[in-house]
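Suppose a colleague, Dr. K., hands you the sequence of a protein chain of 374 amino acids and asks what its three-dimensional shape might be. Before reaching for any lab equipment, you can write down a predicted structure in token form. Begin with the sequence itself:
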Amino acid sequence: MSILKIVSKVNITEDLWNESLDGHSIIPEEFDGITYYRVVKKVGDLKKGTVVTDSGVIYDFPRIARIMHLENGVKLAFNNPFYVEEKVDGYNVRIVKVQDQVFAFTRGSYVCPFSTDRLVDFFDYENFFKENPDLIVCGEIAGPENPYNGESPPYVTEDVSFFAFDIRNKNSDRQIPMRKRYKLFDEYKIPTVTRFGRYTSSDVKDLKKHIQGLNEKGCEGLVFKPTDPSEKTVKYVTEGSCLRDMKVTSSLMIEYQAEFFTNRMLRSIFYILEHDLPLNEEFLKKAGDALLQPLFESVKKVAGGEMITEKFKVRFNKKQNIKKLFEHFHKCKVAASPVRHEKVGKHWHVEFVRKCFPSYEVIQKHWDGHSHFD
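The predicted structure, expressed as tokens, is then:
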């Protein structure tokens, strides 16, 4: 089906489509011979992150609202029962069939060469999409050997794993109902996030036990999904996840907005107060270390004439996809360079380094004595 026929189904006229291409609100891309279009600025009802293909429109994955007080937040959000799932610390992908191929799209609406390469290790996607070609499997890829994040769940100790949490239809921005979703996950043996079950806002004591257990294990948090479509999905995270977020990002603090850190400080304080935890020396030391130690190491490197870098390890099934990952990085203006690769068992093990130029340049100017206004 032509692209214009596809977008007409979501109320995008030919004139609007062409104007959006000319104005670079929609950008054409290509991967393995398949052309697709990335929405980078809102066009009609298509939000940033949406992907348009000749097999259908893949809507952006919506942002999830956050509550900072568990009991009050759940009571305010839900009048009806809701489902509770674990929030896994990884990166979001939408897995979908385009023509005769299956791709994993990132939140930024790119095909991810790494994620697409690894799909075969996660579930029998060929069988699933053969029988359900118009569905989209949404989930989190998490683990210490991923090309994007410095954090991972404590139960993924090497490589990466996939955790599905949603199924959607092409050409629609709605999920399919929870029970049908769970049935499909189980029928096709698709690995999922931990499912805690169905609750109401009066079950706060049980919800607190779940979140406290996740905090003790070093997990990220919970997601609450409504049974009533008029209510919204919300998320809530552990105190520990806030400190870990700060620790893995504070080395590049200059590249983040101040709210990234202040929000996590507030979340951790809210968690401590609601769950009757002490604001003791142990917590204060962890918070101070998370904020200052990595930043100190960055400044120390620059002062010594050394570039700030991040090191990554990943595994691939196909050697040709290694090159595609670095082409993807180049397209995204990420300064990543391969260090080494070797075949170990069935996978290619790849190590690479990302150079953090923005942080390096700002710190270097300050260290060299340049003045500035703040």
